[in-house]
Amino acid sequence: MTGWRTGLAALVALMLCPSGAMAQTSGLIRLTDRDDLFGWEAVGRVDLGRDGYCTGVLIAPDQVLTAAHCVYDRAQRAIGADVIQFRAGLRDGVVIAESGVARYVVAPGYDPAAGMQAENVRRDVALLQLSAPIPAALAAPFHLAGTLAPGQRVSVVSYGRDRDKAPSWQRECGLLWRSQGVMGFDCAVINGSSGAPVFARDGGRARILSLVSGGNWDGGESRAYGMDLPEIVAQLKQDLRAAASRPLAANPGFRRVTVGGDAAASGAKFARP
């Protein structure tokens, strides 16, 4: 137990200390046109009523992964599912599809008041159940990644502050380290990137390796932190099934949207070490 705690303390220190030897991030590509968005439709903006927005990604027609801290307000109170909206493929007021949220579950042990501690990053995952499924023909859900290849390169699709009207794709950044269920990346993240999927390429299809929990972009070098997902997601799916007997929140269901104004979100949610 002592060795585990020592390792965890070292991991926290590593999260807080940038290294000049780490790789620099590459540029961002704005996915503006429908052709640009092709293949990334399942990534969307999670609008949180008046509490801002995060990024989320479909892993099933009616299930969206995002960061757990996104579903808490500034007083660390859980946000009602009925005010949450998932907007798949949102770009300049046009979405592929959108749906309200019926319910959600948060990884056991996550503490909204604990901030960017390594133990909290490991559990910074929420699973949203949509009020109505979004057809896979419109937005094909992503699968989780399996084993990591040596020297794994990754990519991130996210909505961020000052770029929240359309997703930005960083086509390549690096997995810098991985320890005790937490990962560090040199990917470009900012407010609003919370919950953004970190993709690893597996053959011809991108798969979700992690989610952005938080990060730091000071000093000219971006750092992002995420978590291992397979065990947490399996637990969250069980918890969501267990919660299925509860009454659904009153929230609009699936809508396909082609034209319309994009209501300004009140602010991006993000966690910084």
Would you mind describing this structure in some detail?
By secondary structure, this protein is an alpha+beta fold. It has helices at 2-16, 34-37, 118-121, 230-242, and strands at 29-30, 43-48, 53-60, 63-66, 84-88, 97-106, 126-130, 153-160, 163-179, 182-185, 197-202, 205-211, 214-216, 223-227. The chain contains four helices and 14 strands. Residues 1-26 and 249-266 have low confidence and may be disordered. It has a single domain (2-245), classed as Beta Barrel (Thrombin, subunit H), CATH 2.40.10. It is globular and about 45 Å long. Strand 8 (153-160) and strand 9 (163-179) form a beta hairpin. The strands form two sheets. Strands 1, 8, 9, 10, 11, 12, 13 and 14 form an eight-stranded antiparallel β-sheet that branches. Strands 2-3-4-7-6-5 form a six-stranded antiparallel beta barrel.
Reconstruct the topology from this structure:
Elements: H1 2-16, E1 29-30, H2 34-37, E2 43-48, E3 53-60, E4 63-66, E5 84-88, E6 97-106, H3 118-121, E7 126-130, E8 153-160, E9 163-179, E10 182-185, E11 197-202, E12 205-211, E13 214-216, E14 223-227, H4 230-242
Antiparallel strand pairs: 1-9, 2-3, 2-5, 3-4, 4-7, 5-6, 6-7, 8-9, 8-11, 9-10, 10-14, 11-12, 13-14
Give the DSSP E fraction (strand runs of 2 or more residues).
25-35%
Low-confidence stretches: 1-26, 249-266
- Report the top-level CATH class: Mainly Beta
Task: Supply the helix-strand structural class.
Answer: alpha+beta
Task: Count all strands and give the number.
Answer: 14
Q: Main sheet, how many strands, which sense, barrel? A: 8 strands, antiparallel
Oligomer: single chain
The assigned CATH architecture is Beta Barrel
Q: Examine the coordinates and then state which fold CATH places here, giving the name of the CATH topology.
A: Thrombin, subunit H
Radius of gyration from the CA trace?
A: 17 Å
Mean pLDDT rating: 81
User: Termini distance?
Assistant: 25 Å
- Let me know the CATH homologous superfamily: Trypsin-like serine proteases
Helix content: 10-25%
Write down the secondary-structure element order. HEHEEEEEHEEEEEEEEH
Number of helices, counting only DSSP H or I runs of 4 residues or more: 4
Shape: globular
Summed up, the domain count is: 1
Keywords: Hydrolase, Protease, Serine protease, Signal
GO molecular function, one term: serine-type endopeptidase activity
Signal peptide: 1-23
Pfam families: Trypsin_2
